Amino acid sequence: MSPPPTRADTPAALGFRMPPEWEPHHATWLGWPHHASDWPGKFAPIPWVYGEIVRALAPREIARILVNSAQHERQARHVLERVGVDLARVEFFRFPTDRGWTRDFGPLFVRRTSPRPELGIARFRFNAWAKYPDWKKDDRIPERVATRLKVRLFRARAGAGDVVLEGGSIDVNGRGTLLTTEECLLDPALQVRNPGLGRGEIEAVLRDQLGVTNVLWLGKGIAGDDTHGHVDDLCRFANPRTVVLCRETDPHDANYRSLEENRERLQGMRLEDGSKLLRREQSRPGADVQRPPGPHRARHPRGADPGSADRGNSRGGSGVGAGDAALSHPTGARGECRRRRKAQAASR
Predict the structure, then answer these.
(1) Can you list the domains of the chain with their CATH numbers?
(2) Is the pTM of this model over 0.85?
(3) 78 Cβ neighbours under 8 A, 6+ residues apart
(4) What are the b/e assignments for 90-107, b being 16+ CB within 10 Å?
(5) What is the pLDDT of residues 78-121, one digit of tens each?
């Protein structure tokens, strides 16, 4: 059965789509770290890790950095100057945040090429993974970015209600296929993002807002992840036809069963054109690696994570493993789409 038609006023109906992280982009968005409990007992070196991320990005693209205040910006500038970053390649936005996970709460950029190139933001709500009380500042970021950049904002709604979605809960191949998990988007009891919305309603929103036509549902995410099932922990598109999947070989590990089930699901899945999905597998770290506490502890199967891309892309990320950096695409490459990357993955 073919999906129902999109509404005439949605991004998809207007020709917008969410690009994949590998398309060209103009900038990467990062939230300069300040919430010490996200790195229990390890915060001191974290700003320097971010400094190295920006140093790797700046020669090729703009780094757009969220800071809480003038003092916070001075602290960031000090670190960036010490590590040798050309500050002409950095833009600061004094937009206060609760935490720093821009991949999840930052603007999710979409773009179109006709009738003229245009960038927009698919505005999903953020509620701290339906788990933590500190989220209202983070939730304002998409609007504030849209106002500053003067781009169109599309509110993601189902019926009369706003829809909650984090960037780390989805991944796209740019041709119409999206990956996600049932545990994150459909769990009816734990960390429920959108009470009352089922699979069909969620797929309709993803289709209308992101321009996808084919949603692939995996089962559970990584055990113990505070996000409760983000797909970017376990499976990512490497190119339009290939995914990289985490695999656990120890049958006694807490992740063994769920990752095997996901592998079996992928074997029968097809892309938007009906072709077979190619799969590459990557083993998870061994049991001797301690799983740190806190949100987003186990991130991507690949070294980098997309963030909010500032040009026409979608998530962003440069391959340096920047945890929660949101990538930005210039209206030529990836229009502020969020190339989500997670700046904190690099620090784990």
Answers:
(1) 27-347 (3.75.10.10)
(2) no
(3) none
(4) bebbebebbbbbbbbbbb
(5) 999 999 999 999 999 999 999 999 999 999 999 999 999 999 99
CA dihedral 323, 331, 135, 73 (to 10 degrees): 70
Q: Which is it for strands 161-162 and 171-172: parallel, antiparallel or unpaired?
A: unpaired
- CA-CA distances (angstroms) from residue 82 to 75, 85, 123? 11, 8, 36
Please tell me whether residue 155 adopts helix, strand or coil conformation: strand
Say how far apart CA 89 and CA 262 lie, in whole Å. Answer: 41
Q: Which residue stretches of the chain are H helix? A: 46-57, 70-82, 102-105, 128-131, 136-139, 141-149, 182-186, 199-210, 256-267
Q: Please name the residues in contact with 270: beta carbons below 8 A apart, sequence gap of 6 or more.
A: 214, 276, 277
CB count within 10 Å of CB 240 equals 18
In the chain, what are the helix, strand and coil shares in percent, each to the nearest 5? 25, 25, 50
Whether 212 contacts 177, CB under 8 Å: yes
Per-10-residue mean pLDDT, the chain, length 348:
65 96 92 95 97 96 98 98 98 97 96 94 98 97 98 96 97 98 97 97 98 98 95 96 96 96 96 96 60 39 34 32 34 30 34
Instruction: Round to whole Å and give the CA distance between 292 and 330.
Output: 36
Strand partners, 237: 243
Exposure letters 24-43 (e unless 16+ CB within 10 A, then b): ebbbbbbbbbbbeebbeeee
pLDDT at residue 285, as a whole number: 56
Contact 159, 138 (CB under 8 A): no
User: What are the φ and ψ backbone dihedral angles of 185, each rounded to 5 degrees?
Assistant: -95, -15
The rounded Cα 228 to chain-centroid distance in angstroms is: 15
Q: Which two tokens stand for residue 325?
A: 């950096």
Helices (H), 150-283: 182-186, 199-210, 256-267
